[in-house]
Write a structure and sequence with these properties.
The complex is a heterodimer of chains A (415) and B (136). Chain A has 415 residues and is of the alpha/beta class. Helix content of chain A is 43%, strand content 13%. Chain A starts with a helix and ends in a 7-residue tail after the last helix. The longest helix of chain B is centred in the middle third of the chain and has 11 residues, at 67-77. Chain B has 4 helices and 10 strands. Chain B has 136 residues and is α/β, with parallel strands linked by helices. In chain B, helix 2 (67-77) packs parallel to helix 3 (91-100). In chain B, the strands form 2 sheets. An 8-stranded mixed β-sheet of chain B has the order 1-10-9-3-6-7-8-2. A two-stranded antiparallel sheet of chain B has the order 4-5. In chain B, strand 4 (32-33) and strand 5 (38-39) form a beta hairpin. Classes of the chains: A alpha/beta (415), B alpha/beta (136). The A-B interface holds A 25, 28-29, 32-34, 47-49, 51-57, 60, 139-141, 156-162, 175-176, 213-216, 241-242, 245, 362-363, 367, 387-388, 390-393 and B 9, 11, 25, 29-33, 40-43, 60-70, 72-73, 75-77, 88-92, 94-96, 98-99.
């Protein structure tokens, strides 16, 4: 990689040991992925729940946090993905003291590095949506795909160490979705079906992700009959990123870089085209229902964190009813105070639900929670969560939000 | 000499170990019970198999960003594959391998999951201009 004088100085240690480690890490990664140089970034977003970090990762962070302040503090606004617990409700989830201790240690280390503990995966809705063309270093797949696709920003998947590196150096290797040539479509998904519910948007996203198949593919969706809203895009994108490891999609006539199909499919270029319809979406969902034998142990709204509007919808579905199995509604720390102030939290909790903030279900020691609480079968309206949670020993059912609430109020029985 | 399959990129050290091969993806969070050292995702083609000390020959890096931290965490406990060999990587896999000082090669002109027999002893050399894997 070509280095500027400033980058070479970091590599030589002149900006301190943290930045020296960071830029060396970035050079190693960038070289593997064919980056010619670095691009300055405006924001970094670090995923670092302690289930992923483990004790070894926390100790590594603490070593960084002990460096002198001038060496260790991030150079650009740097925020965080959800934590591995909600301290206020950890006892309800049966999180153990060692988990909470690891989280507290990780938080202290990040704060010493100057990181803003936003603890959210929906920063594009609640913190600072990026601008079209803005280069960023985002560390959550749902954040990356939404920011790239809906906002027209430019980020690759930046895992924890790389996002932290970007925070320290103010730059990231220029490869992948920072480059114009990688933002054109590589396949077309033709659909005559426009979903209505969030689980259906997630199912469609999951199907598109599976069809695309790897990080370097960029699908363009054609045939929707209206513009999806932000929460719909959130569920679609999160699922596409989860099922296909995708970082960018286009929707012809909707997303900013594909106002016309020809903007992302140059003339004369023939791309493989797939047809996806309502029957495919129903079949996808049904594949995640038949595994639970008509009953679940809990309902989880998470992955991504709920917007204020989603929280209001959950509350509305619960009004006058009682959940008789655990129902978890997980939102961001930015939205929770508004939900409290507007009485939304109280309505969910009056119906027996639990509102959690700043965490994500599958990033919060999900296997240990299952064992401690006797949870085996889970209902959710998040296609992303259904994709991930099986590896933690759960059997997931993908239902609509309304069906999830119905199930919670029916003792876990599916109709 | 057995056939050599050259990769477009590599990182790490030379080694020899037994290959565990499947036409399926890889994500440390989605697919593994990292305590027991087995593939835990029920739909995965290697579900129930131990990955410890094996060269994992798989199709594409899948899923989220957690693998970037998780390989380092797995390495600290010694419950770890020997190396990763993938048709297609994503940045997370590269970042995780870099932090963990692990071994990976990727990008072939064939489907490497069809070229390497499951259970074969393989040699991997990521260090030269042309990283490679070959069956011993």
């Amino acid at each position: 990689m070509r280095l500027t004088d400033e980058e070479q100085a970091m590599r030589d240690g002149k900006a301190g040991r943290a930045r020296q480690w960071a830029i060396e890490h970035q050079i190693k990664v960038g070289t593997y992925l064919g980056a010619e140089d670095f691009v300055p970034v405006s924001q970094a977003h670090i995923m670092a729940d302690t289930e992923s970090l483990g004790a070894a990762g926390v100790e590594w962070l603490e070593t960084m946090a002990k460096l002198p302040a001038t060496e260790r503090r991030v150079a650009i606004p740097t925020i965080t993905d959800p934590r591995g617990t909600d301290f206020a409700s950890a006892h309800k989830l049966k999180h153990q003291p060692w988990m909470l201790d690891l989280e507290k240690r990780a938080i202290a280390a990040f704060e010493a590095l100057g990181v803003l503990m936003t603890d959210t995966c929906i920063n594009y809705q609640t913190i600072m949506p990026p601008v079209r063309g803005e280069h960023c270093a985002y560390g959550d797949t749902g954040v990356v795909i939404y920011s790239n696709s809906v906002c027209g920003a430019r980020s690759n998947f930046e895992g924890g160490p790389s996002a932290l590196s970007a925070g320290l150096t103010g730059r990231t290797p220029r490869y992948g979705y920072h480059l114009d040539e990688h933002r054109l479509a590589t396949l077309v998904v033709q659909t005559g079906y426009t979903p209505r519910e969030l689980n259906e948007w997630g199912a469609l996203g999951g199907l598109v992700g599976r069809l695309a198949g790897d990080y370097w593919q960029v699908p363009v969706v054609v045939g929707l009959d209206r513009v999806p809203g932000s929460d719909e895009m959130k569920h679609f994108g999160a699922a596409a990123a989860s099922y296909g490891s995708l970082a960018l999609f286009h929707m012809a006539g909707v997303t900013p870089e594909a106002q016309r199909l020809e903007d992302v499919v140059p003339s004369g270029v023939s791309l493989r085209t797939h047809d996806v319809g309502e029957a495919d979406v129903r079949k996808f969902q049904q594949s995640y229902v038949k595994t639970v034998d008509n009953a679940v142990d809990l309902v989880v709204f998470s992955a991504p964190q709920l917007s204020l509007v989603e929280m209001q919808e959950v509350a509305g579905l619960l009004d006058g009813r009682r959940a008789t199995i655990p129902l978890l509604a997980i939102t961001s720390p930015q939205i929770k105070p508004d939900a409290d102030r507007m009485g939304i939290t109280a309505r969910i909790e009056a119906a027996g639900g639990t509102v959690l903030a700043g965490m994500c279900f599958y990033q919060s020691y999900a296997r240990e929670m299952a064992e401690a609480n006797g949870w085996k079968r889970l209902a959710t309206n998040s296609a992303k969560l259904t994709n991930i949670i099986g590896g933690y020993g759960y059997k997931p059912a993908l239902l609509s939000m309304e069906q999830c609430v119905d199930v919670a109020c029916a003792g876990g029985k599916l109709a | 000499m057995s056939k050599i399959f050259h990769a477009t990129a590599g990182m790490g050290r030379k080694l020899q170990a037994q290959a565990l091969v499947a036409k399926d993806g890889f994500s440390a969070r989605y697919d593994l019970d990292r305590i027991k050292g087995v593939f835990s995702r029920p739909e995965h083609k290697l579900a129930g198999e131990s990955y410890v000390a094996k060269v994992l020959v798989l199709d594409a890096a899948k899923g989220g960003v957690a693998t970037a931290w998780m390989l380092y965490e797995m390495q600290s406990r010694g419950v770890m594959p020997a190396a990763l060999v993938l048709n297609a990587v994503n940045p997370i896999m590269v970042q995780g391998v870099a932090l963990a000082d692990f071994t990976m090669i990727s990008g072939f002109d064939c489907d490497i999951t069809q070229a390497i027999p499951n259970g074969a002893t393989v040699e991997i050399d990521p260090t030269g201009d042309r990283p490679f894997i070959r069956v011993l």
